[in-house]
Amino acid sequence: MAVAASNAEYADDFVQNQAADAHHGIPAIKFFEDIPGVVASHGVQKCLERLNLLHMKYKFWESKFVTSRAALLQKVPEFTRAIQTVKYIESVNAKQAEIAQQDGNRGAPQEEIGGEDDELSRQPRLNTVNFELADQLFARAQIRPSCVCIWLGASVMVEYEFSEAIALLESNLNTAQSSLQEIEQDLVFIRDQINIAEVNMTRVYNHDVKTKRQAGKQ
Amino acid sequence: MRAAVVAPQDERDTTVTRSDQNDINRFARLLNERIDTGHTLRMRRELLRLHDDAADELILADDDELVQHVVGDVFCYAPKSEVEARIQEQKEKLEAEIADLDAQLAAIVDEMQKLKSHLYAKFGNTINLEES
After folding, report:
1. A80-93 pLDDT tens trace
2. Residue A5: which pLDDT band, with cuts at 50, 70 and 90?
3. Residues in chain A closer than 8 A to B90 (CB atoms)
4. ipTM
5. Helix (H/G/I), strand (E/B), else coil: A137
């Protein structure tokens, strides 16, 4: 996410350059150590204008990062749920195989799961699911998956073996979690800059008020 | 967090130092964290309540019945004992998470309180650290 372009042009009395890879090149704001000095060299009006502009920019970046954080916060539980589901299907499959084997050993006729028998579909079994067909509309099915399909995006869905699917989903989950962490750190940084901008503005303003009051007294 | 315009009678000659600025930033950061942690905590508590309800309902079910439970987006059937174990496991996970969040929140509130008294001592009512 390249938010700021080349940051070389940003450095001045108000902002300083960051390492190019830190916080997407967003410059850090300078804390005014010497308010009278800054005001003397730039003028109150110019200072406030510039700080206000910077404040707006940081606010804009903040909203961008808040949006991407919200998207990631939604993705993480989605991946977790998908992983749980694949693991569950896998365990059900294993159980079904066990039952089938026991039945086979006893010489019982092996039932065809998901057959045409109406009785079967009415009697829930371990591999029966009620799935959402449309909003608030559910249908019953018996599933016997040997693989799962993962929506990769861009209108592409790919079939995976269980273990491969879990590996892929887990790596997606890790990626989402680490970018979430990165975004949290960027947000902390940006919010710090917003605070510094606000405090700088207040200090410039108060300095101005004070100078004017003193001038009035004289 | 915003320092308001100083009224003449409140005017103090306090210089804001870099370390004060760091304290202010830290306070703002903690405030955000407190809001986020509080939000997560409420959601986890609600989820735990739902699991409790589910566990209570399960007691009423027949032992040899297959009960429905949510996996991902679908309802699956499983023996009662298995679902009970699943819910118990989830509950334990949630309880641990809640205890952890509670501790985090307490630490945040504690540090905020310290920063608050420190900053108010220096800036008096030229600074406003209450939530707007």
Report:
1. 999 999 999 998 88
2. very low
3. none
4. 0.80
5. strand
- pLDDT of residue A104 exceeding 50, the answer is yes
How many whole angstroms separate alpha carbon B86 and alpha carbon A86? 16
* Contact assignment for B73 to A195 by CB distance below 8 Å: no
Which of B2, B11, B77 lies nearest to residue A126, judging by beta carbons? B77
> For residue B128, what is the nearest residue in chain A, using CA coordinates?
A199
Domains of chain B: 16-126 (1.10.287.370)
CB contact under 8 A, A195 and B74: no
B20 vs A175, more confident = A175
Give percent helix, percent strand, percent coil of chain B, each to the nearest 5. Answer: 70, 10, 20
- CA dist A116 → A111, A139, A141, A142, B10 (Å): 11, 16, 12, 11, 85
**Residue predicted with more confidence, A206 or A72:** A72
Burial of A181 (0-12, 13-18, 19+ CB in 10 A): exposed
Residue A124: is it exposed, middle or buried by C-beta count within 10 angstroms (0-12/13-18/19+)? buried
For the segment B84-119, what is each residue's pLDDT rounded down to a tens digit?
999 999 999 999 999 999 999 999 999 999 999 999
pLDDT tens-digit series, residues A107-142:
555 455 444 555 555 677 888 889 999 998 999 988
Q: Which residues on chain A are in Cβ contact (under 8 Å) with B3?
A: 198-199, 202, 206
Question: Is B106 within 8 Å of chain A by CB?
Answer: no
Distances (CA, A) of A81 to A99, A170, A173, A200, B15: 27, 11, 10, 46, 53
Question: Do A192 and B72 count as a contact with CB atoms less than 8 A apart?
Answer: no
